[in-house]
Structure formats: structure tokens, C-alpha cells
Amino acid sequence: MKRGLYILGSIFIFLALMSSVSAGLFDFLKPSGRASSQLQNVSVTIVGANAVTIGGISIPAQSPIELNAITVTFSVWVNDSDGVNDINTTSVTAEFKSGLTTKTSSCPFQNNINTKAANFSCSLSMSYWETPGTWNVRVQAKDFGNGTMMNGSSTFVYNSLSALVISPLTLTWPSLMTGAINQNSSNHPTIINNTGNFNGFVAITAYDLKGETSSSEAIPASSFSVGANGLQCTSGITLTNSSVRSTGISSNPGNLSLGGGAGQANIYYCIPLVPSVSSQIYSTKTFGSWTVTYQ
């Protein structure tokens, strides 16, 4: 009986020890009580997320002034739903563009229209020689919140100006013999300065040259030809009495101050065959001076 109790007691102790040892050995197989994932709250405050908008751009047609520049001034409003304090007032710029030409300027702050919109004034200079027609206008502005650059766009028309100055004002020939051929003017070329921005061709309205002594005779306007180079005698444009004749020579608008032919065109005159008329001076005194213009 005692032996049996002893054996049972021994087994009980053994199992208790094994249970304790197992708990220590295999704890790593059991959950540690720490979560493998965890929820995290996120909070972000956005300032100035609403980008600015631009409007109110209105520019009437502009007219150049001969040999001068004009200033085109217009107002634009910038709106930011986050408030005027979010508008970067030094970021507002204006741009005029036509073809390959781009002109830019800053637009200074003028005043607040309300709590969300501000007024700016833009000014750009336009020279007399710049391209006539439609110009594209773009205004840009940024806000402080996210620095977004926004565009406002419009157009305006820059009118055409036909204006010129020629030199010399008097066209002359040396004393000529009747029947002589290919007689060039003694003071050519006539230099035509385009003092506007008209883009077309040089045209001439010629008149017969009346004899100053014997008014019954005249040298017909058709005795003269014009051209842009030394071929005016053989392949130039023949003039016609009292009629506008295009020379086909470009008006060549450009900045005259640059020199080098910018804004200039040259015309050469020739009498291919001197007509059979009496010896005297023939001039424009009776029928009027020839007119050089653009068309």
C-alpha cells in the first residue's frame, strides 16, 4: 500500500515538473500578447488648397503711334477662396504674345476688392513696328498655400499703321540723249523707312512728266521702270500714268533703330529707253508729284 502511494506521488511530482519545464521551453510558440498590427489616426491641415482664379482681363484695340511706343495698361482681378492674404501679390505677371514675339511685365498690387479678391494693374509697352493683328494675353498668379500658378487669358487687337518717310524727296537723272537705253537715276536708291507696322508692298502712283518750256510734250510715266536691285532696267515693274502700281517690294516693317536694313526698303528707277522728245526739262510740276505708298 505504501509502495503504491509512493509511486503515485512520484508520478505526480514528475508531471508537475514536466509541465513547468514545457511552459518555459515552448513559450515562444505561444502569442506574446503584442499585436502584429495597430491602427493609427492621421490628421493633416491644408492651408490654401484652393488655387487662385484670374479674371476681368479686357483690353480694347490699340493703335500704334508713328516712330513711338505706346503703353497698354489694363486691370485684372485675382480671386482666392482662402482669402486675399493667401494671394502672392508679387507673383502676378502679364504676357503678350504674337507669333515668335513675347513681351512680359509684372502687375503691381492695387487694392483689395473684397475679402477674397484683389485688383492688380498690368502695363506693357508696344512699339510702332510690332506685328499688327491679334495678340494673345496671359496673366499668371500664385497663392501662398500650395504655390499653384494659374492662368487667365484674353486677346486684343494691335491695329495696322501705314506710315513712311522717303529719301531723297527729289528723283533726278543726268542730261539724257533721246534713244539712250537703260538710264538709271543719278541719286538712287530711294530709301523708304517704314515708320509704322504695315506689312505689305511698296506702291507708286506715277504721272507723265510735262515739258517745262514746251508744255505740248511729255515723257510718259510708262517710260520708267522700278525694281529692288540692278535688274530694274530689264525686268522691273513698268509704271503707268495716274495708276497705282505695286512694285512687289516688301514694306519690311521693323525697328529702324537697329539699322542694317531693318524697317527699310530700297527702290531703284530706270528709263529703259529715252523717248524721242525735244530738248528741255521735263518734271512733275504740271501733273503733280509721284506718290510712294504701301498697299
Explain the overall architecture.
- Helix content is 9%, strand content 40%.
- With 295 residues, the protein is mainly β.
- The chain has two domains: 53-158, Immunoglobulins (Immunoglobulin-like, Sandwich), CATH 2.60.40; 164-294.
- Strand 7 (133-143) and strand 8 form a beta hairpin.
- The relative contact order is 0.14.
- Written as H for each helix and E for each strand, in order along the chain, the element string is HEEEEEEEEEEEEEEEHEEEEE
Tally of separate helices: 2
What gross morphology would you assign?
rod-shaped
Sheet-strand content, in percent, reads 35-45%
Query: Mean pLDDT across all residues, rounded?
Result: 88
User: Fraction of residues in helices?
Assistant: under 10%
Q: Structural class of the secondary elements?
A: mainly beta
> Biggest β-sheet: count, sense, barrel?
6 strands, antiparallel
| C-alpha Rg (nearest Å) | 45 Å
How many β-strand runs?
Answer: 20
Number of individual domains: 2
